[in-house]
Write a structure and sequence with these properties.
The protein folds into 3 domains: 7-138 and 230-245, Rossmann fold (3-Layer(aba) Sandwich), CATH 3.40.50; 143-225, no CATH class; 249-354, no CATH class. It is 43% helix and 7% strand. It contains 14 helices and 6 strands. The strands form 3 sheets. A two-stranded parallel ribbon has the order 1-2. A two-stranded parallel ribbon has the order 3-4. The longest helix has 20 residues, at 318-337. The termini are close together.
Length: 360
């Protein structure tokens, strides 16, 4: 299990430790050398709760410079961006896959039930991702393979072996209906899950026996019985009740503008200069961690910037900070006016767990 320093991966570690204490889980953290101090504190707290060490992985061992700086120089000052995430590959993916080696491995991923994203799926055949917080715990590649029209007879046969007789006819009606423009894979998956999550998991587990996925080599997998769906509020509850705590950078800080009060915080873990940050988060960094903001500014040179439309030296100007905060107040006001149980706060969207958004 990858520990990013964010709330979701930390909560998943606690959740699995409490619910499945007999699972043999190794924990790791890919250290870029550019994390906030709260990240390291969270990892220390987790180690105490888990009674296990979180292995620190570094892309460059034995070097006198931090991993990010090593590759920053190697890429001639080219800063990572959403279109060229070399930091993810060099600082996260490669160290992780090197750590795993060629052993069959289950990678537990903390993507929540209220998030619509998949996360990283390794191209290495010996690594299989599982998503315990979701209704569908299986990765997209597994579902793609399972629900191919050519596998309809196989899946129907598996259902006939274990499905309740009272539901079998309905289930087979769905299973035998081929995928088409009118009946998509997403629809088929949703309907099968709605009939029975545990049964569907058993079908997938049985199907995997004839593949090369890591789970093909085990006779038992306890998460097959798991029907929990955890959302954002559950994550905070787990961290608070366990005593591990929520990283400090998620705590909202008040600011005032023309008599109005607003709030800002960080929405993700990862490097303090993560290019996925929103403008208001850069302002938060400037005002709450000014030295780190200055260090982030030092990387912007020779035409490379963290934001595609603005330099940090311009963002920190008083009139620009005023405008960013003004925009944040407007967004917050609009969000509050449209508040519903199904909407997340403007700063509490898919946090992505920093640059591990791409892989854990």
């Amino acid at each position: 299990m990858g520990i990013s320093g964010g709330k979701d991966s930390a909560a998943l570690a606690v959740y699995l430790k409490d619910k499945y204490p007999y699972l043999d889980i190794e924990y790791y953290f890919c250290d870029t050398g550019k994390e906030l101090e709260e990240t390291y504190q969270l990892i220390n707290n987790l180690e105490i709760y888990l009674g296990e060490k979180v292995v620190r992985l570094k892309a460059i061992e034995g070097e006198h410079e931090e991993p990010f700086d090593h590759f920053y120089k190697l890429f001639d000052g080219y800063l990572p961006s959403s279109n060229a995430r070399w930091c993810t590959r060099m600082l996260k993916l490669i160290p992780f896959e090197k750590f795993v080696g060629d052993d069959p491995v289950i990678s537990y991923v903390g993507i929540r039930g209220d998030e619509d994203r998949e996360g990283y799926i390794s191209r290495k055949p010996n690594i299989q991702s599982i998503f315990p917080f979701r209704k569908n715990i299986w990765s997209e590649d597994v579902i793609n393979k399972l629900l191919k029209n050519e596998n309809i007879p196989t899946i129907a046969k598996l259902y006939k072996k274990i499905e309740d007789k009272n539901r079998l006819e309905k289930v087979l009606g769905i299973v035998k209906k081929p995928l088409s423009v009118e009946f998509t894979q997403e629809q088929k998956l949703s309907e099968l899950l709605d009939i029975g999550v545990t049964t569907f998991n058993k079908i997938v587990f049985g199907f995997l026996k004839n593949t090369d996925y890591p789970l093909a080599f085990t006779s038992n997998f306890p998460l097959v019985e798991n029907e929990d769906v955890l959302v954002r509020d559950d994550i905070f509850k787990i961290l608070e009740e366990s005593g591990v705590g929520v990283p400090g950078y998620y705590q909202k800080i008040e600011f005032s503008l023309n008599g109005e009060r607003g709030e800002y915080a960080r929405s993700r873990s990862g490097c303090f200069f993560c290019f996925f940050q929103q403008k208001i988060e850069w302002v938060w960094l400037y005002e709450q961690h000014n030295e780190l903001f200055k260090r982030a500014m030092e990387y912007e040179k020779e035409g490379f910037t963290w934001m595609k439309d603005e330099r940090l030296e311009d963002l920190k100007k008083p009139e620009r900070i005023y405008k960013v905060k003004e925009d944040q107040l407007k967004k917050s006001s609009k969000n509050n006016n449209n508040k519903s149980p199904f909407l997340l706060d403007i700063l509490e969207d898919a946090e992505g767990e920093g640059c591990t958004a791409c892989f854990v």
